[in-house]
Amino acid sequence: MKKLFLLSTLTILSFTVFSQSEKRAIPSAKVTDMEGATVNTSDFNNDGKPMIINFWATWCSPCKRELNNIADVYDEWVEETGVKLIAISIDDARNAGKVAPYVNGKSWDYEVYIDSNQDFKRALNVNNVPHTFLVNGKGEIVWQHNSYSEGDEDELYEAVKKLAAGEEVKH
Fold it and tell me: How does DSSP classify residue 141?
């Protein structure tokens, strides 16, 4: 029981520290695009508009549900806010070959990258997927959410709308 209490306290403290700390820039790590070209994550940008960075994997059912649900409304999100979603697969080298067929079968309009060495995942302290980050127009992480339940995409969209309107986003 003491361990559970300690773990809960540490989790709450980590979220409190993150939300009260200065905004973090997107860290630099190498990922590959769907054609196999290497891209530096510090180069991710959206011309001053919000970005969503979503970590997922082909073996993660909640991840796929979340990205598929967002895909259904993504065009409207882009039209209203200018947001860009970047999906980062953490599939390792054994499973990386499954990413492109899955993405192509779903016709996602997202930028999709593969972090098979999991350098970007480690740089952002992502412990499990799905894990979603919201980035402001300056490239600073302002909000994050771990896990997925139906309707979480609505909370994400509300945060995106606030950010696009120039409001501060708090989690």
Answer: E
Strands 131-135 and 111-114: unpaired
Contact between residue 98 and residue 92 where contact means Cβ atoms under 8 Å apart: no
- Return left, alpha or beta for 125; rule: phi > 0 is left, psi -120 to 50 is alpha, else beta: left
**Torsions phi, psi for 24 (to 5 deg):** -100, 145
Q: What is the CATH number of domain 24-164?
A: 3.40.30.10
Cα distance between residue 78 and residue 85, in whole Å = 9
Nearest to 90 by CA among 49, 46, 31, 21: 31
* Alpha carbon of residue 126 to chain centroid: 10
Question: pTM of the prediction?
Answer: 0.85
Q: Which of 157, 169, 151, 154 is closest to 79 using CA atoms?
A: 157
Which amino acid, residue 59? W
The residue extents of the domains of the chain are 24-164
Nearest to 91 by CA among 83, 100, 82: 100
Q: Token pair for residue 74?
A: 């993504």
The residues near 31 (Cβ < 8 Å, ≥ 6 apart) are 38, 39, 41, 88, 113, 114, 115, 119, 120
Per-residue pLDDT reduced to its tens digit, 91-149: 998 999 999 999 999 989 999 999 999 999 999 999 999 999 999 999 999 999 999 99
